[in-house]
Amino acid sequence: MSGLRTVLISTGFVGVVGIGYGMWSVITPGEERKREMLKNLPEANPLRMEETRKRNALMMQVLKEAAETDDNIARGLGPMRSQK
């Protein structure tokens, strides 16, 4: 009886995995759809890509400057407190 239960559970598990794989293969896009999606990405536009590079360079510069300073910029944020 225990052997029959093991066989049934194993068969059910293999069936569930097979159904999951089948559903996954149905929803994944085909090669033509993948090419179309890649063509429409923002990175495909050279002007947009150059803007992104400039923005990333500016952000890296700001982060580098912030790492080199000992000032706590978070202290200046929030409601104004009276100075003693």
UniProtKB/TrEMBL annotation:
<keyword id="KW-0066">ATP synthesis</keyword>
<feature type="transmembrane region" description="Helical">
    <location>
        <begin position="6"/>
        <end position="27"/>
    </location>
</feature>
<dbReference type="GO" id="GO:0005743">
    <property type="term" value="C:mitochondrial inner membrane"/>
</dbReference>
<keyword id="KW-0812">Transmembrane</keyword>
<keyword id="KW-1133">Transmembrane helix</keyword>
<dbReference type="GO" id="GO:0006754">
    <property type="term" value="P:ATP biosynthetic process"/>
</dbReference>
<keyword id="KW-0999">Mitochondrion inner membrane</keyword>
<comment type="function">
    <text>Required for the assembly of the ubiquinol-cytochrome c reductase complex (mitochondrial respiratory chain complex III or cytochrome b-c1 complex), mediating cytochrome b recruitment and probably stabilization within the complex. Thereby, plays an important role in ATP production by mitochondria. Cardiolipin-binding protein, it may also control the cardiolipin composition of mitochondria membranes and their morphology.</text>
</comment>
<dbReference type="Pfam" id="PF15141">
    <property type="entry name" value="UQCC3"/>
</dbReference>
<dbReference type="InterPro" id="IPR027896">
    <property type="entry name" value="UQCC3"/>
</dbReference>
<comment type="similarity">
    <text>Belongs to the UQCC3 family.</text>
</comment>
<dbReference type="GO" id="GO:0034551">
    <property type="term" value="P:mitochondrial respiratory chain complex III assembly"/>
</dbReference>
<keyword id="KW-0496">Mitochondrion</keyword>
<keyword id="KW-0472">Membrane</keyword>
<protein>
    <recommendedName>
        <fullName>Ubiquinol-cytochrome-c reductase complex assembly factor 3</fullName>
    </recommendedName>
</protein>
